Amino acid sequence: MAESSPVWQERRPPAAQQLWHWVPADLTDLPRIRRELRGKLAEQGTEQAPAVADPDMFVLAVDELMSNALRHGRTPVVVDIGRTDDAWLLTVCDQAVDAPPRPAFDRDPAQGGMGLGLVAHDALQEGWYASDAGKHVWVVLP
């Protein structure tokens, strides 16, 4: 049986200016949100959409956290993307405050469940916290 790594550290993210917001109802909303996000990233380089270091990884990170929230959390799920001074902040909130993010460790990739590890690998920071609004899982990406 595969072990799990410790849950992501419970802490607040850095301050960020919110740019984009989605509320996916279920997994069928994800292709539309990915398309919209890719369109917004194509506008990069403007003041409202600064450049992303790796757009494909960025979209993958958003998709992984959204799909985890929809599969393992409780609705409603809220997705917010913002900018810090020098990075991007991605936050996904769901209602499963009793289930902190727990990346898979030493699992056969064929069994799935590797998304949090992939996201954390490219993240500058990651964490989570609970509030009255729910469980907020966040990553800072370059």
Task: Describe what this molecule looks like in 3D.
There is one protein chain. The protein has one domain (3-141): Histidine kinase-like ATPase, C-terminal domain (Heat Shock Protein 90). It is 27% helix and 27% strand. The protein is built from three helices and seven strands, in the order E-E-H-H-E-E-E-H-E-E. It has helices spanning 30-42, 55-72, 115-122; strands at 3-4, 17-22, 78-83, 88-94, 104-105, 125-131, 134-141. The strands form two sheets. Strands 2-3-4-7-6 form a five-stranded antiparallel beta sheet, with helices on one face. Strand 3 and strand 4 (88-94) form a beta hairpin. Helix 1 (30-42) packs antiparallel against helix 2 and helix 2 (55-72) packs antiparallel against helix 3 (115-122). It is globular and about 40 Å long.
Layout of strands and helices, then pairs:
Blueprint: E1 3-4, E2 17-22, H1 30-42, H2 55-72, E3 78-83, E4 88-94, E5 104-105, H3 115-122, E6 125-131, E7 134-141
Antiparallel strand pairs: 1-5, 2-3, 3-4, 4-7, 6-7
Strand order across the largest sheet: 2-3-4-7-6
By secondary-structure content and strand pairing, the structural class works out as alpha+beta
Distance between the termini: 34 Å
Radius of gyration (CA) equals: 14 Å
Q: Major sheet, described briefly?
A: 5 strands, antiparallel
Looking at the overall shape, the CATH architecture is 2-Layer Sandwich
CATH class membership: Alpha Beta
Number of domain modules: 1
The global form is globular
Find the CATH topology.
Heat Shock Protein 90
**Fraction in helix:** 25-40%
Number of H/I helices: 3
Poorly predicted parts = 1-5
Compute the number of strand runs: 7
Task: Look at the structure and name the CATH superfamily.
Answer: Histidine kinase-like ATPase, C-terminal domain
